[in-house]
Amino acid sequence: MRDYALDLQARWDEAKTDDLDLTLEFLSFAEGRFLSIHPFRDFNGRTIRVFLAELLRRLDFPLVNLAPANEEARSLYFSALEAADRRDWQPLAAIWSQRITEATSENP
């Protein structure tokens, strides 16, 4: 967890820039890496949602819906998490892009 926190800290300045791709990669890393090393057997979902909500607040992003809406979205999400386990952040970044797009279209 210490290494994870240090990695997040190293990525933070780039996440706060106007480059949305860097911010999406940061959020993907924050979520995917946390879930791959989370120290508890249960409560991963609740813990990461609280943590991500705080990161979004600090980045001045709107609160997004973090739970997959249906079984197809859930399957896509778990596939993206498996890719994140291999350090491939792009599938999860695509989900983050969709989350942010939906949140901003609901709250213009």
Please write out the topology:
Layout: H1 2-15, H2 20-37, H3 44-58, H4 71-85, H5 90-106
Helix pairs in contact: 1-2, 2-3, 2-4, 2-5, 4-5
3D structure, described in words:
By secondary structure, this protein is mostly helical. It has one domain. Helices cover 73% and strands 0% of the residues. The protein contains five helices and no strands. It has helices at 2-15, 20-37, 44-58, 71-85, 90-106. Helix 1 packs antiparallel against helix 2. It is globular. The model has no long low-confidence stretch (mean pLDDT 90).
Question: What tags apply to this protein structure?
Answer:
single chain, 108 residues, mainly alpha, 5 helices
Helical stretch count? 5
Distance separating the two termini: 36 Å
Percent strand equals under 5%
- Give me the count of strands: 0
Radius of gyration: 13 Å
Shape estimate:
globular
Largest sheet: none
Tally of separate domains? 1
Helix/strand structural class = mainly alpha
Order of helices and strands: HHHHH
Please, what is the oligomeric state?
single chain
Task: Determine the mean pLDDT.
Answer: 90
Fraction of residues in H or I helices: over 70%
Low-confidence stretches: none
